[in-house]
Amino acid sequence: MTHDYSDALIVQEVSPRDGLQIEPTWVETTDKIALIDQLSLAGFSRIEAGSFVSPKAIAALRDGEQVFQGIIRHPGIIYVALIPNLKGAQRAIESRADELNLVMSASQTHNLANMRMRCEASLTAFGDVVSFAGDHPVRLNGSIATTFGCPFEGRIDEDRVLQLVDAYQALGIQSVTLADTTGMANPRQVERLVKRVLERVSADHLTLHFHNTRGLGLCNVLAAYEVGARRFDAALGGLGGCPFAPGASGNICTEDLVNLCDEVGIETGIDLPYLLRLSRQLPALLGHELPGQVAKAGRNCDLHPPPGYIATL
Ligand code: COA
Ligand code: ZN
Q: At what angle do helices 119-133 and 86-94 cross, to 10 degrees?
């Protein structure tokens, strides 16, 4: 059987970062490392393994150095670190992150709440990050949080998002993520904006980051895919959320996304049965149920024995 790999959908697994940053219970460093090492065997080409932000802002991920030091690196996998500023970049590069994910919000209010600075200050800091990173073999990606809506400001002007894409490119950052921080995107909006961004950024440099806060996560993936987007963030079990965005909840669930792709015939290269086994370990690790649905329901092909009584009918 031949595959047209240009139709393949690339999943970047973000549970170790977006997923764990909002968990109220401390996850031991060894458990984080074990989770990432297990995820490294699932077929992902990219894993966001942690963040290097202020430990006061996100205490749950304060052990970034130890995590990056402890994981087993697989040659085919890019291990990504989220950073907000130069200090984060220095820590991440020191910890041998393969890619820095620079994050700011389209919304001034959310940037102030999350990064404690205005958007302009984030961009200035990113200029310093780019200069510093230039001396090191590290990739850069620029994320735009609240692209599709902000829990404080509501609607975000699409031109504002395009200006930020241009600002990243002017800094020399070619790869961009459009993030729907609190699940406010709808498929029509996604279609429209992704088409416009793809006029500036090639599909292999554009990632969509959806949260399933209002149940539209996978609808938005399909809408973006149909107009040419190929790269998507997702979190095992549907973990995730920004602690500085009221009402935030989980990312789109990786195994639900892979199940969708398997069902409609989109190649991902990810081992779904393996992923389901990993996801089913999460309640024991985190002490609560997770929003992911396929881990509970099973795949369509996981059939049940018929009830005994039908033999008597
Ligand atoms: N890593 C570790 N420590 C950092 C840091 C980083 N990347 N950036 C700043 N700090 C430390 C400073 O050294 C300083 O420490 P001190 O109090 O011991 O001197 C302290 O944090 C305050 O520094 P300052 O630059 O004034 O930061 P701030 O308090 O204005 O916060 C951010 C700004 C960006 C560091 C903080 O808001 C942050 O980390 N936000 C990220 C939130 C996040 O991850 N959200 C979810 C993902 S989108
Ligand atoms: Zn997110």
A: 30
Ligand 1 site: residues with CB under 6 angstroms?
21, 51-55, 57-58, 82, 84-85, 87-88, 91, 103, 114-116, 145, 242, 244
Residue whose CA is at the smallest distance from ligand 1 atom 11: 54
Q: Return the bridge partners of 48, or none.
A: 80
Considering the domain boundaries, does residue 1 fall inside one? no
pLDDT tens, residue by residue, 32-64: 999 999 999 999 999 999 999 999 999 999 999
CATH number, domain containing residue 207: 3.20.20.70
Q: How many residues does the chain have?
A: 313
Does the predicted TM-score (pTM) go above 0.70? Answer: yes
What is the tens place of the pLDDT at every residue in 195-221?
Answer: 999 999 999 999 999 999 999 999 999
Beta strand segments in the chain, E: 10-13, 46-51, 78-83, 99-105, 139-145, 175-180, 206-210, 231-234
